[in-house]
Amino acid sequence: MSEQSRHQRFMTEINDLTAQELQLLTTLDYKSRMAWGVVDWTQGCAKRGVGVGRYMALPLDPGSAEVALAIVDSHQRRGVGLYLMALLVRSGLTNAITRFTGHMLAENDGMRRLVDRLGGSLSRPSAGVVELSLDLSRAASCLDSLFAGDWRFTLFLRRLTESMSVKKDGA
Length: 171
Prior knowledge:
By secondary structure, this protein is α+β, with helices and mostly antiparallel strands. The chain is built from 6 helices and 6 strands, in the order ααβββαβαββαα.
């Protein structure tokens, strides 16, 4: 990711993650802490990660979770964020998350457009930062409309949700 993309994701200049930051970002329980990644397979065996989306439930409000996306520059504005958000929304709803929140730079036009497409809202900028709020039921309805013609992805999401429900009920 470019310096600008890292700055938009972490809202500060960052080159390396500390061990604590890495652990925070990679420790998942698949309920209150979820992540999805996208891999580019177009280069055959030379696959590489091109994006990751994650949410972490807020300890004082278990129905809400902080959401974040990071997409490598070469794959931005190509739908990767939309697909990641679709997976996160479905996962969140399956795990009793009803709302996503998060802080982002006001200049992050890609994320602003995504939040708008999914029926979310942004607070007024304060010191160049806005807070997003996304009702997951409303976002799911928007996603259903956006993916109405993409039967493969719609079927994938349905099977994913069913699989998560079975594991949750059967576990």
